[in-house]
Amino acid sequence: MASLFTIGELARRTGLSVKTIRFYSDSGLLPPTERTRAGYRLYDAAALARLEYVRTLRELGLGLDDVERALAREDGVARLAARHVEALDEQIRRLRLRRAVLRAVAKRGSGPAEVRLMNQLATMPDEERKRLLDEFWDEVSAGLDVDGEFYAWMRSAKPELPDDPSPEQLEAWIELAELVRDPDFRRLIRGMSETNAAARAAGEPLAVSAEQQEQWFGWLERARVAVDAGLPPDSPEARALADEIASTWDEGMPRTKLADRVTAGADERAERYWRLLAVINSWPPVPERHHAAHWIADALRHST
């Protein structure tokens, strides 16, 4: 014979008060399995699982009417338990986000306004985060005939904030959300898109091979070493690098124009976009290269 529990026994097993359990029972959320001859209510294992589910739904903020509707779709211990696990998973996710927000608040010494913003952004659903970036790319490329393959690749990188983010990941997401909503940043990337579209219309080559990209990163590394060593962009070493870049990259293009292109693609905020995504998504760190790129641009100008 299956075990039956009194309200007192349910209270001991769940930690809920007898008064609360009796309220749920009187409300129809927890009907008794049967009654004793004296009229005392008894509950079976399915009722116990139902009670745990009711508690979880209530802790998640559902009203009694919503709880009743949720219960109306369930029957049997297994299905109740499965639904209970789903609800607990959601509760755990929210608690982890709340913990991450509090850790970030403690680290940043945030004020009330920033705390509200951080909590709002941290609890934003994944689809809403992705939609925020999609809207950003829509705006900065709207009406322009840009390189479709390149922009599809740019758009494909989406923030995937884990259920248990570190304070650094949460701060990175908050900064990224603020960045893509910044009108100045949108104007910057819009300008880059217009440059891309103009180059495409002029028939200029836009695709960069893996070999060319590797070569560019090598030049940037040499420039970084030069910057760290305190070499000015008008030094002999800078002139040698500028000569190599100019002769390899695009013969016949004025060096000042080449320098302008390097500068246009070396904005610190554009680089910051990818550095933040790398933190959020636990990608390998994106090296800081904009200082080296600006040094190369200055070297090109000095070498004319």
Automatic annotation (TrEMBL):
Residues 4-73 form the HTH merR-type domain. It comes from the Bacteria. GO terms for molecular function: DNA binding; DNA-binding transcription factor activity. Keywords: DNA-binding. PROSITE patterns: HTH_MERR_2. This is DNA-binding transcriptional regulator, MerR family. It comes from Amycolatopsis arida.
